[in-house]
Write a structure and sequence with these properties.
Blueprint lengths: L11 H8 L3 H10 L6 E4 L6 E4 L2 H9 L17
Helix pairs in contact: 1-2
């Protein structure tokens, strides 16, 4: 069956590959980054709803994430 998704939107598998994590982890990461699905389509095999994400929104949200070990409870002015 052909892939009927718009070429400018990513599935959860695409997002997971970009982030370098498992699809089940990508869902949680998107939730924490407050990235919402732009649209839905029927999955090609199961016909269940499949979320599609805006890649630019995913990239922007990922770039804004604090790095590993970043103390987000401290302000930059407190660290001076």
């Amino acid at each position: 069956m052909s892939d009927e998704r718009p070429p400018d939107l990513w599935t959860i598998d695409d997002v997971a590959a970009y982030l370098g994590i498992q699809p089940s982890s990508a869902r949680g990461a998107l939730s924490r980054m407050r990235v919402r699905a732009r649209s839905f389509r029927a999955h090609p095999q199961s016909h269940r709803a499949q979320a599609l994400y805006n890649p630019e929104q995913v990239k922007t949200a990922n770039a804004a994430r604090p790095g590993r070990g970043k103390r987000t409870d401290l302000n930059d002015k407190d660290q001076e």
